[in-house]
Design a protein that fits this description.
Layout: E1 23-24, E2 27-29, E3 68-72, H1 73-79, H2 84-88, E4 125-129, E5 132-133, E6 154-160, H3 164-168, E7 175-181, E8 187-197, E9 204-215, E10 220-231, E11 234-235, E12 257-258, E13 267-273, E14 279-282, H4 285-288, E15 297-299, E16 302-316, E17 319-333, E18 340-342, E19 357-358, H5 366-375, E20 379-380, E21 382-385, E22 394-412, E23 415-433, H6 437-444, E24 446-449, E25 452-455, H7 483-489, E26 495-518, E27 521-540, H8 542-546, E28 557-578, E29 581-595, E30 599-613, E31 616-627, H9 631-635, E32 639-641, H10 668-671, H11 674-681, H12 689-693, E33 697-699, E34 708-719, E35 727-743, H13 747-756, H14 761-764, E36 767-769, E37 775-778, E38 783-802, E39 808-824, E40 831-833, E41 852-862, E42 865-874, E43 892-903, E44 909-916, E45 950-958
Parallel strand pairs: 4-7
Antiparallel strand pairs: 1-2, 2-3, 3-6, 4-5, 6-7, 8-9, 8-45, 9-10, 10-16, 11-15, 12-21, 13-14, 16-17, 17-22, 18-21, 19-20, 22-23, 23-26, 24-25, 26-27, 27-28, 28-29, 29-30, 30-31, 31-34, 32-33, 34-35, 35-38, 36-37, 38-39, 39-40, 39-41, 41-42, 42-43, 43-44, 44-45
Signal peptide: 1-30
Membrane topology: Multi-pass membrane protein
Family: Belongs to the TonB-dependent receptor family.
Length: 959
Amino acid sequence: MDRVPYHRQRWLLAATSLAASFSFAGIAAAQDAPAAARQDATAGSEDNPIVVTGSRIARADLVATVPVAVVSSEEIAQTGAANIQDVLADLPAVGQNISRTSTNFSTTGNGQASINLRNLGSSRTLVLVNGRRFVAGVPGTSIVDLNNIPTDLIKQVEVVTGGASAVYGSEAISGVVNFILDDEFQGLRLHAQAGLSDKGDAARQLVSATAGTSFAEGRGHIVIAGSYDKDHGLRSRDRTFSATDNPNRSSYNAQGLFSPNGSFAPGAGTLTFDAFNNVKNYQSANIDGYNRNADRYLALPVERYLASSLAKFSFSPAATVYGEFTYAKSKSNSSLEPQAVASSDLVYADGSAFGGIPIANPLIPTAIRTAMVNAGVTALPFRRRSNDIFDRSNHNDRETWRAVAGVRGELAPSLHYDVYYTHGETRDVTHSGTVYGPNYANALNVVAGPNGPVCAINADANPNNNDAACVPLNIFGFNTVSAAAAAYVTRNGEQSRYEARVKQDVASATLSGELFKLPGGPLGFAIGGEYRHEKSTEDFDEATNLGLTLGNQLSDTRGAYNVKEGFVEISAPVLADLPFIHRLSFEGAARYADYSTVGGVWSWKVGGEWAPVRDLRFRGVYSRATRAPNISELYSAQNETFPAVIDPCDQRRGAGDGAPISLTNLPAACRANTAIANAAASGGFVYSTAQIQNINGFTGGNPNLKQETAKTLTLGGVFEPRFLPGFSLTVDYYDIKVENAIGIIGQQTSLNECINGGGQAIFCNNIVRDATGHLDSVNAINLNTGSFEASGIDTQARYLVRFSGDTRLDLNVRWSHLLKQQQTSYPGGPTQDELGQLDCYACGRLGTGFRDKVNVSATFALPGASLNWRANYLSSVVDDLTSANPIRTGSFWYHDAQLRFGAGEKSRYSFYLGVDNIFDKTPPVFGDTSPVTFPGTQTSANTYDLYGRLFYAGVDFRF
């Protein structure tokens, strides 16, 4: 691609809910692990009940009707990851995320990091910090940028699904990820780490410090933390699988391509330059073209500064005041090949078409002017890359701050309250170089002057060119543009500017406790209300708004909404300690939300648990979850995209320059277009690579959207045999159905259905063709258009063996087996099966439908040393289930290991070495023209490892 596609993954469609249990020292499901192994969760008691994510009711045990996964601080340390996203990405329930490997071609937001449960999309995963909402990092959405979460301050991460929307509100359709920070840390911790690939690149560094103390006889605590880390990124040219454009380089080359007859086809009719700037015939893109991957990133560099503080003070059991403050600053930049410019892109300031370089331009070489005369044209079409003019890559600066103030306590025995207010803000600024189109057109409209070439600035020479500051632009050959001309067409290096701001205010009050005793225990309840206000603005500079910078034409987005909510939750332990009823309990929750946008919305859940004996229990939840449309979905204006689509009428099947005709029998809808039929009859209706790359489209918001609804069923069992201490087994079945899903009809879907599906207006109205029959635009707009259904089985087995002393062996196997992943793109439309298929945004897919994902972790610990080995399995998938000749990836195993040594009391001084992707597994290669490929990667960049073997080492001192 030569243009910047609008890869903002706020619109990523996906489906299902998380019903998995994970393991500690792997990833431990706190409520499912053996009691002796619950080292990573704070145990409750009758005197000290706690709140587990997924419920607002404090309870003495960690048993819940939905699986609650706990990622401990020990597990985070074992990965050697500076960014918490890298830890969570290994969970089988996590789908394709917004990340530094998938955002090089994002228009904005480069290097952001999100969490996406069950491929339902990051907008449908609610992120909490200490049980409270966090301000969005992606403007216009609810998506939290995980770059803002301080990894070394995390005590544990809790993940829950099944009825979460009833407890926490909108965005919790797929589940909740709750980052619990250590607000009682005492002492001083210093942590440093550095890493490098075995090829000497992809460097990473981290330094952090955490300090905490208690005072007033333990009634008060204060913790402060700061960290700095830098990921240097990875160039596409530094890996063999992505070093070169595949299958074709770009015809937009650095020396220019000039075609008097306008065909730009290889041969005598198209001229270019050799390395010595001599005119020559254009042979092909692979010989005379441009290798864009030499400029691109596989993974973006990200630099982060984080500062956090937490404080609390208990005046009495009736009142504990608490507060939090977080500040995060992150910097990132993309790397894109220089801007591709064509004569057809240019217009003058008055809006009139440029038409081509006038034959009177004295800078035109004699050989090219002669070809123009022979072709009988007076205006020269061209294509050229802007290497000697400017750098269009993005430079991002993001700042986020968030403050929390609250008070909680006991109003009476077994009656608790919690009232808090949070305010958060995100500011995102992106700069990139630009070419100003009208100036470029002026600078090519050149005539001979008394002292050399000059711009045709008088009305007699050309009425369109009246800029006295114009400097002639010589684009004929390598490095021919003067500094003065480059300054003119870039308006003295002026950069495009994007500035976004997000503001969030939340006020919440909860009353919880026990009402009365039931035979199985006290009846717990929680009731409360919440008010939330969200505001987001996105502003582009005027030239970008008008599409005059030759990049994407992008519009501003401004919007706000508020919601008032009330909720109630009940937990009823009905029976206990009876024959065949060791425990029987039921629970339910309901929430009513009044949105300023969509009105009143209900969410609810019902569930229960039955343990016939102490060693075995069964659980289940049925819920109705909702998600209100976000600001971007409602209010975003029309934005230009360049989707990677293949016209079903293209007789080269999207293969581009030089490919043979493979489609000989055009579909009837193609033949009905006179221009297409005539072209097919006279040699073929085909697309060049450049034509494919220049198909654009527009996406936009819809203020008439309604809320999404989802119904989720989770059924599972937990087996903890007393005859085999340290062993546990959990099996959970989930099924989720989403209706009225907010999304778009994928551009490729619109094309396929318009041509092959009977020409329905819902599809064909999205398609615009030019006079030759070729695609000009394929558009999309947000609609409550589709439905998803997904189901699967999650199994976890864990065995913790303790030997003498502190020696132990901890084995974990987590397996997610996907039974169904499918969607219906529009009401009454065909069902698209996505089980066993790779993620593809242009195709409107939910995400990669791995039939099986397995995570295995083994930790062998001795006094003063431990070895952890982790393995992740991804089952085989194909690039396109609808293809007659799909590409199959084969299955993938990734292996990581860490060796840690400890010294001092309780190993307070740790030294560790680690390696990721031990066997240097390379990703599958699909090529640039595949719809599953991210530009510059030749593969599915948010699915497979791009780095190869990585080494790291670090120290972790605690005083």
